[in-house]
Amino acid sequence: MSRNWGVAIFAAIALTTVVPVGAFAQPLPGTVSTEVRMRLERDARLSVTETVRVPDGKTVKRTVPLRLAVGNDLERQYRISDAKVEGKGSANVSGDAFELTLDGGEATVTYVVEGAVAPVGDALEVRWQVAGGWDTELDKVSATFSAPDSPTSVNCLAGPVGSSQPCTSADLADGKGVRAQEIKLGAGERVDVAVGLAAGVVPPNAVVVEASGLAAAFALTPASGAALGGLLLLLLGGVVLLWFLRGRDAAALASEVGPVSVLVRDQDDRVAFASPDGVLPGQVGTVVDEHVDVVDVTATVIDLAVRNYLWIAETEGHDWQIMRRNPADASLSGYEKAVYEALLPAGADAVTVSELRGRGIDLARVRDRLYADVVEKRWFARRPDAERTLFWWVGIVLAVLGVVATVVLALTIGNALFGLAVAVGGVALAFGARSMPARTKRGSALLEHVRGLRGYLHGVTPGDVPEEDRELVFSRSLPYAVVLGETERWLTTFGQQDLYWYGGATDFRRSFPAFLGALDGVLAQAGHLRSLRTPNP
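RE: above sequence
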């Protein structure tokens, strides 16, 4: 009888003894254990301190995923900051993971978690994976939690990821906080603590995004949104700049311009043609369309003949001969000398158009000299072709870098819209390169004068020029009519037949357009210039 009472008393003592949470089995020697203390700040950031005990001579690693699936192709996204390790080890955030490496001994790890507070109905829930991703078994995991207000509930799950197995213990710690504990956590298993709070205790800061994949990679995030906004500002800035630069041209084109005064009287009281500002035919075409075209060189050849440097004559077999009349001198500009020498190299006094077609002609030097000439005259700040090429290549490089960045970001951290924005900006810059070589203010003023010159070509009649001066006025004006696309009307209006610089033609109005077409074809074969195109100021 006394023996039975003794057993009963022992059992009663055992049943009524309260064992505090922290007083479960102490970590066994040679095992890894961790104590986690969480404190929710009033700004909703979660301050975490982990004390990890690792056996001497042992190295352990932990990888904490910062994107956790929450169903319906959505993921909960966390952010770690201010990660520090006191002891032997290191901590860093890499991609969508928080990585710890600890060596033997006791280490204290501190960090701040953002995105842990989510609204759930009319309340809040604070969730964090206090343990998980360890590459070793943990003998014990202990966790505590405190907040600006008393928690209303706690749910602690342990075991393999996705399981609903409860922790060894979890309670509200007399309503002042949360205590939880798990004994024997396997490698790769987790302890997930969710604490309920009343609404309004802290502001929610949970971030839920689409699950990893193309949809998530191209989701609009603050970072990608900022990139798109920055691209938009750059594009708008470029448009404003072009609008400002091109606005001068638009004003020149929109202004009412009458025929300019190109007919003047010389010292002998003869009527002569004088181009506005002394601009040459080749320069007119280049300034108007910002390219050195075949028509610019053709008009220059005619101008050289009109000025007695060359002689042009129609020959048998529907061919034309170009002969040296006077040598190139200091009166010629650099590009005019280049045209002269391209047609008649040193030692050559004459050449036919068919011979030029057979031998080929190099116009690269002509192109370079003419571009340099319009820059020297300050009609452009830089060579138009160099400006176009620079912006084209910059655009192509940006587009390629953007494509590479898009692929890399899509396969790694997401925010692929950032790379896509760069690629789109590069493509836009490459396509917009053709609009970049804006004229200077001086060039825009010349454009207005060229429109006046075209008005002269449209409006002048033979009656406006004394008969004895018509041949010279017609001839000096003809190269400008050629470059501005007014050849047919100019020939019809004046109908000249015998000219001092063009011979062998029984019908100049038939022969001259045929010569222009043949010479244009030869020059276009060189491949250095754009084919014939009429400038339209």
